[in-house]
Amino acid sequence: MKKGSIFLVLLTSILLFTGCAKEFNQVYKSQDANYKYEYAKECFAQGKYMRATSLLEGLITLKKGTEDGQECLYMYAMALFCNGDYEAASSTFKKYHQSYPKGEYAEMASFYIGESLFMSTPEPRLDQSATISAIAAYQEYLDLFPDAIMKEKAQGRLFELQDKLVKKELLSAQLYYNLGSYFGNCTNGGSNYEACIITAQNALKDYPYSSMREDFSLLIMKSKFELAEQSVEEKRLERYRDAEDECYGFINEFPDSKDRSTAEKFINTCKKYTSVSED
């Protein structure tokens, strides 16, 4: 493209942008609520969510109690969501649901409370308060609307969020195991291996059908073996027996596990102590 043509395209773009900005400013300053509302709807339809929210925010109170009240509040919430402001979107969807529990957009507003929270959930290593809130929101949506349009998606989200909580527990258990014999964090007695076992066992109790069940079971088995290896004499035999039982349990539940050889190696070590005592 020639330099002159490039300059012409740039100039045209600048003029169009300037013209659009000028038009928006005129609408924004207008006292005609209906005019502003129609322009806001046009912005929303064109995907100009920032402009839509700027206009709709000031119209919510003006439109409340009118036939446009519901649509205005719901559209404002959707514009926030589409613009990536999930915290504000969640609050606004909640406001809609509280204001219009049987309104035209009540079902979708209920769904998007959860969806907004879902989009805000952090990676598993971080605090999962938002994840718990999202689970509660989706569950409430399914309770309120058992035949909901978005039922399948909401159920899928619940599984995803639960996996995130399980992953959080797995990372905690793994951390305890990795800390091993380090006692600097064991201010109340006990050991990191015991903490790993308790964390993993609680996770298996809370999430018995998790896809990470084998990972938790492996950590329990390895931790029990390490406890036996590092035990004082009076506790050693009991802990080797416990570790041996855990290894057999692991093999029975996961016979094709890639870690079966580890379990078998542990059993052989445990038997050096348990078999002697039986003799």
Topology:
Elements: H1 3-29, H2 33-45, H3 49-63, H4 69-82, H5 86-99, H6 106-120, H7 129-144, H8 151-179, H9 192-206, H10 213-229, H11 233-253, H12 260-278
Mean pLDDT: 89
Approximately what portion of the residues adopt beta-strand conformation?
A: under 5%
Largest sheet geometry: none
Number of DSSP strand runs: 0
N- and C-termini, Cα separation = 92 Å
Give me the strand/helix succession. HHHHHHHHHHHH
- Globally, the shape reads elongated
Describe the structure.
There is one protein chain. This protein is mostly helical. The chain has 12 helices and no strands. The termini are far apart. The model is unreliable at 6-19 (pLDDT under 50).
List its traits.
279 residues, 0% strand, 12 helices, mainly alpha, 77% helix
Summarize this entry quickly:
The chain contains twelve helices and no strands. It is mainly α and 279 residues long.
